[in-house]
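Notebook, bench 3.
Goal today: get a predicted structure for Translation initiation factor IF-2 from Novosphingobium clariflavum so we can plan the truncation constructs. The sequence was checked against the plasmid map this morning, with no discrepancies at the termini. Length recorded as 280 residues. Pasting the sequence as submitted so the record is complete.
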Amino acid sequence: DAPETLKSRPPVVAIMGHVDHGKTSLLDALRGTDVVKGEAGGITQHMGAYQIKTKGGDLVTFLDTPGHAAFTQMRMRGANVTDIVILVVAADDGIMPQTIEAINHTKAAGVPMIVAINKIDKHEANAQRVRERLLEHEVVVEAMSGDVQDVEISAKTGVGLDELIEKILLQAELMELKANPDREAEATVIEAKLDKGKGPLATVLVNRGTLKVGDILVVGTESGRVRAMLDDKGRQVKAAPPSMPVEVLGIGGVPMAGDKLTVVESEQRAREVSSYRQEQ
Ligand code: GTP
Ligand code: NA
Ligand code: MG
């Protein structure tokens, strides 16, 4: 086989932290949308996947994760499909149980972390206290002579968001993230559900290759053919290159979050692989 041609791909950035520290608000501010208001009780209960284009034209993929204690599995998965973790810590509330848990998942996954000290607009904000408390969990930020980047932000006023994006892009550049877009796609399921009208729906993140409408696929123990794909704004797309999150229609059943999606050459091959996997 000819050697693969690798091309640079956008970083996949997971936003983690304690409940209500402002993860979804941060994503809203970066995307210019208002997801929080649409959430029941303002609580994130699933992993959202979004791609934004920065002022310089670079793409960054973000995964939103819930801070609620019940969602440990999702945070773990988030850390595992991710290149960079943004640890959001509210400057008024400080280090809390899910902050510590997110630090532990990130370290276990071996993923670089950027600390975003949020809600800096509040009177009670104490960023220095956050930095000091992080030391207790062996997260040493630059301001404390360490090598973990930190930035003070407000998802409410927008302060510090440009600096945060700069730090993400700088970290991504150091990592030289690459994938071959010119091959059959491999992707990871971020979340999946059964939609009454559309049938099984899976939000997947393309790891390598390009996923196309018409592709025959196996995902977990399910198989199917890509009937349509929607981007994070609900627009139909024909192809999804590496690091792009898309919602896939046309899978025979609902796969599980974390399942691997593989494109195969024929429906017969798809059936063989999925029945083999069902027997395991
Ligand atoms: P979960 O998904 O439930 O874990 O919460 P989250 O981390 O996504 O927090 P969310 O974005 O839902 O924000 C929680 C609350 O904090 C909301 O009322 C936001 O309006 C508020 N908030 C978020 N960021 C800021 C900020 O920078 N400043 C101020 N003052 N309030 C903020
Ligand atoms: Na919330
Ligand atoms: Mg949220």
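The two ends are 31 Å apart (CA to CA). The first strand starts at residue 7 and ends at 8.
Flagging this for group meeting.
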